[in-house]
Amino acid sequence: MKHLFIFIFISNIIFAQNITFIYDVKYKPNSGKEIKTEYYYLDVLGSQSVFRSESARNADSLMQKNGFWQSRKPTFDHIYSFKNLISNKVYKSVTHPAMYDLYRINIDDKLEWHILPEKKKIGDMECQKASVQYGGRNWIAWFDPKNPIQDGPYVFYGLPGLILKLNDDQGDFDFNLISIKRSDKNNMFYVRKGKEINWDTYKKLQSDYYNDPFAEIKAHGIKTKTGDANGNPVSVSWKEMTESIQKQLVDKNNPIEIDKKVEFKK
């Protein structure tokens, strides 16, 4: 009974923490040599965590405060997730670029981690190596076994410690922890939920959007205005805007779940 009390006491301390882990994320938006860098935030509050880019986090904060979205990218954001660390529920969050409709996909893939004997220091922390397969990619992780938070970037979690570094063996994605912030306030911001869908529906959403990015806008009769550099109104060319978005979708089609990739036809 004494050991059980100690375990519950420690668990309460862990899940009462409000901690933000900031990762430097380097990724290839396509299969070429271009590499982009963004900051991503893993916000852990109680038994929940949210992983999202700095821009998505700011957009969520604005949504919570003002009730509307700020301007977003014209393409799907493939790296946004939230977890419940007690129920082990993991969701990928998706925002439709046209109407900003919210969707979520239940990631029920079981992460079969292989803890390896190799160890190395990352900063002041003695980390251990582990490997796993997810999304059609082979991943290598370095985790801190002394950290009681068994979480990590995106959908990755379940190791006996915090994941500090994570990369796939093709060099397309590289996550590195660069900063830790603690707070006694709720800094989770707006946590997206949305309609639950499966991977096939998500693929169809992407294909339909590629075929006609403005179908929903046209169907709802929403009037679109644009202006030149001087603010003078100019006519909207659906064809030109469609071609521009289609080009972006083709040029930036290297999702983290490569086994769920939609092959857009030019």
Strand order across the largest sheet: 7-8-9-10-11-1-2-3-4-5-6-12
Structural shape: globular
Q: Tally the helices: what do you get?
A: 5
Largest sheet: 12 strands, mixed
Describe this structure in words.
The chain starts with a helix and ends in a 15-residue tail after the last helix. It contains five helices and 14 strands. The N terminus is likely disordered. Helix content is 23%, strand content 35%. It has a twelve-stranded mixed β-sheet with strand order 7-8-9-10-11-1-2-3-4-5-6-12. The longest helix is centred in the first third of the chain and has 15 residues. It is globular and about 60 Å long. It is of the alpha+beta class.
Which helices and strands, and how do they pair?
Layout: H1 2-16, E1 18-27, E2 36-45, E3 48-53, H2 54-66, E4 81-84, E5 89-95, E6 102-106, E7 114-122, E8 125-134, E9 137-144, E10 162-168, E11 173-182, E12 195-197, H3 199-211, H4 215-219, E13 226-227, E14 233-234, H5 238-251
Parallel strand pairs: 6-12
Antiparallel strand pairs: 1-2, 1-11, 2-3, 3-4, 4-5, 5-6, 7-8, 8-9, 9-10, 10-11, 13-14
What is this structure, in a nutshell?
The protein is 23% helix and 35% strand. With 266 residues, it is an alpha+beta fold.
Main features:
single chain; 266 residues; alpha+beta; 12-stranded mixed beta sheet; two-stranded antiparallel sheet; 5 helices; 35% strand; disordered N terminus
